[in-house]
Amino acid sequence: MIRMENVTKVYKGEVLALQNASCEVQRGEFVFLVGPSGSGKSTFMRLLNKEEKPDRGRIYVAGKDIGALPSWKVPFLRRNIGCVFQDFKLLPNKTVVQNVAFALEVIGRPRSVIKEKVPAILELVGLSKKMHNYPDELSGGEQQRVSIARAFVNRPLILLADEPTGNLDPNTSLGIMTLLDRINRTGTTVVMATHDRSIVDKMRRRVVELDRGQIVRDQSRGVYE
Amino acid sequence: MSLKLDYVLRETASNFRRNITLTLATVITVTISLTLLGAALLFGDAVDNATVRWKDGVEFIVFMDPEISPELEEDIRRQLEDAPEVSGFTYIDKDEAFAEVQDLLGDSPELVEVITPERLPASFRVKPTDTLPERVDELAAAFRTQPGVARVVTASETIRAIEDLSSGLRQRVIIIAIVLLVAAAVLILNTIRMALFSRRRDIEVMKLVGATNWFIRVPFMFEGLIQGLVGGVIAIPLIWLTNNFFSVINDDVSLELLRGFTVDPSRVWALGFQMVGLGAIVGTVGSGIAVSRFLDT
Description:
The complex is a heterodimer.
Chain A: E1 2-11, E2 15-25, E3 30-34, H1 41-48, E4 56-61, E5 64-65, H2 74-78, E6 81-85, H3 96-105, H4 111-124, H5 140-152, E7 158-162, H6 170-185, E8 189-193, H7 197-203, E9 206-211, E10 214-219
Parallel strand pairs in A: 3-8, 3-9, 6-7, 7-8
Antiparallel strand pairs in A: 1-2, 1-4, 4-5, 9-10
Helix pairs in contact in A: 3-4, 3-5, 4-5, 5-6
Chain B: H1 5-18, H2 20-56, E1 60-64, H3 70-82, E2 86-92, H4 94-104, H5 109-114, E3 123-128, H6 133-144, E4 149-154, H7 155-198, H8 200-208, H9 213-251, H10 265-296
Antiparallel strand pairs in B: 1-3, 1-4, 2-3
């Protein structure tokens, strides 16, 4: 599903974010990206949906070399990749249901599809009762569920989660992990960057460790350290 | 990919509400620049019309010395009759000239009192067969040196003066209008940039979930288009006002020189719609540049 071949990314000619990184992720896998801040986890993610371009190396997503993708096709790549962030990135002036519907609306989905899919996905993430609330009326965990719903409503092949539990307490984090696990079980490939040792140790999934831009460990059913 | 009209309209409406003052400033600038440009073009048309009418009846006037002897006057008349270049002429005697002055200065009787028929020159108004300005000049020059002739005024001199004045004026107004139009485009660009900035979170999410650049771009370009269109539509009645001003000039008897200084209504309408089209282009291009710059970064 994802293949990186000798990828190097340097910011502004001096900050080395990724160095000769190679990595392959199969369809349906669940991968933790771990490592200290600045080790290149976010760059790894941003390269996958072409928010950044590698300086060297090739990246394949769903069998396609995304380096060869013309810029007008990038939006269509992104429709296959859901993204979840530490800071949720919800629109404050839209309700829960509007936030999720927005993601479908702006890729031109018909209203009938939106009407059918949005309540279903909110049911899945357990927010049916708060459909018409605004993000600032929700807890952090609930906001992250909305953001996961938005990322997953279009049934992407890949879900990228950049520290999705970074702002949440341990209990809430566990709930989010259950949700991500459930999404993974539907066949969606999940890549999650995290600092959360207890979660990684508890889930026992594949762990890819980055240190100063290099992949220093790749272990199936691994732990944080 | 389907761009839904109701989506575009909704987005555009909310952007207008957000930036109402900037939108107003933009629309006003578009209106002013398009009105100026339209008025300048209209003025040019009016001058063309006025001078065309003059050209049709080109004539020059031979003013006689007020103390001319009847013999000399008769001599000039005979020359006019004999000259093959002259198709016809009318003789305006002192009394007729006085009557004209009375008409012209009817509003100031104290001036009329000072003037007496004796002080006014009699004149021949000449219609040449060949109305080419150079020929008219030649013919007029031939009479200018005749004994008993005070001066010869050709209509073409007047026409040239009007044309010179108008082309200078027109050029200046058009330059001002173009500068204003560029200012309008920059204002539109800025308005759209403000709108983009206030919606940067939405745009970030849109890019994230895979909205195409055109999908993001269209509502903003539509906003620029509307600003240009509204500015242009408001310019139409203002251009009509300019045209009304022309007919005031035209109807003023004392400005006989400018007879024909008028423009056909269909031309005014056409010009109005051209200005609306120009506004639409300026609006779309300005906003397009703003959005492209924003999306590329």
